[in-house]
Structure formats: C-alpha cells, structure tokens
Design a protein that fits this description.
Length: 240
C-alpha cells in the first residue's frame, strides 16, 4: 500500500483506516454470480477496471475475445493458435497495426491441466512434474497490442531478386517468397510471404498490403497451385 486514506476522519491514519481499506469492495475477492463468461455483464465490469489483460482464452472463442478487448480499448497479452492469424476477424487488425505477435511463439508449450482432464492426444504430450499434470500444445502464439522492442528491429535482407527464384503469382503482380529470410533486398514491388514472417514484422520497414487473395479475389496461385495463406507486403523504404 502506498496511500491510506483517513476513512474515519480522525485526522491521522491508524489501524482502523488500514482495515477499512483492506475490506473495501474493490480489495476483497468475491465469487462471480454467473458462470464466468467473459461476455457477461459482471465480467465486462471487471474488464473495464483492468489496465492490462493477460489470458489464455478458449481458442474457439478467440475472435470474440479479441473483439471484446479491442472494443473496450484494453491493452492485452493473450495466447492463441497460430492459425488465428488467418481469421477474417483477426488479420484486418494486424494490417491496421492494432494487433501483433509477442515473444516466444511456436514450438511446444506446456499447460497445467486437472488430473481428470480427458484428452485424445499421445502420451508424449503429457507429463507429470511435482505431482502436477501437464499437456503440451504446438503452434501457440502470443497476441498483443503492447509495444515490443522487436517490432522496431529491421529484418536483415541478404538475398537478391531474380525472376527464376521469385516467380510472380498467376493472379497477382506480387512475387512468391517461400521463407521470411529470403525476402529480396532492394525489391520495391509486392511480395507474398508466409505466416512466420509476422514474428519479424516491423511496420516501419514493411507495409502489409493485403492477405491471401490475388487481384481476382481468389487464393494466390503459382502455376495453378494455391499457396498456403500468404501475407502480401511491400518495402516502405524503397521507391515504387
């Protein structure tokens, strides 16, 4: 505590003031009246009092959860599946720089689960440490609107463009870049890059032009074959 108000108006702070502070409604843990749904009025009220939200929401409700946080203008750091990037409700937020990726994305992450938690996974994804049961999940990312140092670090570009190595899409003028670390240096046109690029996205270095679709509104293709979800970017520091 850094400040104790004079609740009993005695002109000084005493133990009675401390007790009044500790037992006030805002400092006492109380049970929720409902089932804890984040969209319920009592949970929205708690959200409105929060400065930063850190959570692991149900992945099936990820769209609604992010919408709730942004509509209430909250800062947040939440876990979600990598494929959430591809949701039509999510990638416009990324393009508008209202949402981006945090640190330590992908790989295997372990989550503590109840002893009676039912699962359909393999034994290799379950472990017990110090009597506590854990389940592993892959492709889990941190999504946030808190600024990070890496968002301002420039990606070093070492490749050079050649039409043989970087083919143009059938239905768009952008070129295909198969890996984020193969983005060609000095190329001023648009480029389709994989989802992994977002871990290195610096909005001061590159502009996100669009997601997934070519000029015909269909998935980007090379020689008639669709490429998995691509992010079309352009180097902001080069003349077009």
């Amino acid at each position: 505590m850094t400040h104790i108000p004079d609740s009993n108006k005695t002109g000084t702070q005493d133990l009675a003031d401390v007790e009044a502070l500790l037992t006030s409604d805002k400092n006492v843990i109380t049970l929720l009246q409902g089932n804890g749904d984040f969209r319920s009025p009592e949970c929205i009220k708690a959200l409105q009092e929060a400065d930063i939200v850190v959570s692991n929401p149900p992945f099936s409700l990820f769209r609604d959860y992010i919408h709730t946080l942004i509509s209430h203008e909250k800062k947040f750091l939440v876990l979600g599946n990598q494929n959430a990037i591809t949701y039509k409700e999510i990638y416009p937020l990324i393009k508008a720089n209202k949402l981006w990726l945090g640190y330590n994305n992908g790989g295997t992450k372990w989550f503590q689960v109840p002893d009676d938690y039912t699962h359909t996974t393999t034994k290799s994804r379950i472990k017990v440490e110090n009597g506590k049961r854990y389940l592993s999940m892959g492709s889990v990312y941190w999504f946030t609107n808190l600024d990070t140092t890496k968002r301002h670090e420039e990606l070093t570009l070492v490749k050079r463009y050649t039409p043989e190595e970087y083919p143009t899409y059938d239905n768009d003028e952008a070129i295909e870049v198969a890996r984020y670390n193969e983005i060609p240096d000095g190329y001023a046109g648009t480029m389709g890059v994989p989802l992994t690029y977002l871990q290195y996205y610096n909005p001061e270095q590159f502009e996100i032009v669009k997601f997934r679709k070519g000029n015909d509104g269909k998935d980007l293709t090379i020689n008639g074959h669709s490429k998995y979800f691509r992010i079309v970017i352009r180097n902001k520091n080069l003349e077009r």
